[in-house]
Design goal:
The chain has about 280 residues and is α+β, with helices and mostly antiparallel strands. The chain is built from 11 helices and 11 strands. The strands form 2 sheets. A 7-stranded antiparallel beta sheet has the order 1-2-3-10-5-8-11. Helix 6 crosses helix 7.
Amino acid sequence: MEETIYEYKIYQNHTPTEFDLLGGIWPLKVGTNVAKPKYHIGPQVLKHFSLHFVTSGRVLLTYENKQIMLEQGDIFAIYPNVLHQYQNKSITAESSLKMHWLAFNGPKSTYLMNRIKLKETRPFLKNKLNQELQDTLQKLQHSLSKISRFNKQQLLLHQLLYQVFYLLEDSTNHTPTQKQSSLIFKSLDFIQKHFKKQIKIQDIAKHVGLSRSHFSKLFTETLGETPGNYIIKKRMELSLLLLSEQQHTITEIAITVGYPNVYTFSRAFKVYYGQSPSYYYKSLN
């Protein structure tokens, strides 16, 4: 295992291939770790999704100014460009914090996270990790170590990645039809390409061939939030990342993320994060 200041870990990285990118979701890193007593990650933001599976001990997750204590069998998610932190809260060495983790990305990621009932507003699942899921994660990590550009491990890799979500999904979940799923994927792709512009819900509905009301209802039922709120979330996440880089003025960021002026942007940012962008910018120094 590799030793760092905070942990012992073993992991496999993966650079997405053309085959991966065609699939809509791809793994980036799979690993396991054993936390040291002072293990503390963040505050930080990532540019990808990450699932953490607690196999032993306790971890305190902080998200959206909320905290939740998670224990053996629990799972928590990190979303792209969302400020978060987590730390070891195990009391004894015998019950030290140990975790599996899976980093991934792709346009299907948000949809799959919603299918297993994970959301940015509640990024954790209680008592969901079982032996079959642990075995799948270990196989996924092993598969990454064997993969090459054109071998059969590429197919196995994606099979195992989807199996993780399959094992996490509640069999009683109401899932959309294939046609509905296709429309949602199409709308998410459109939003990803155009949320930095002043797009309207009607524009997205027209793109997928539905009325505004029908599209909004389908989107909300499938993803658990309205398309308008989803666009705001994408803009806010990008603006937080740009502010953190400290390389742009607030006016430049406002225009970049799709707001007509700095006043409208500042008001939206304060409603979303509870503080103005200028206040957040100053707090970084």
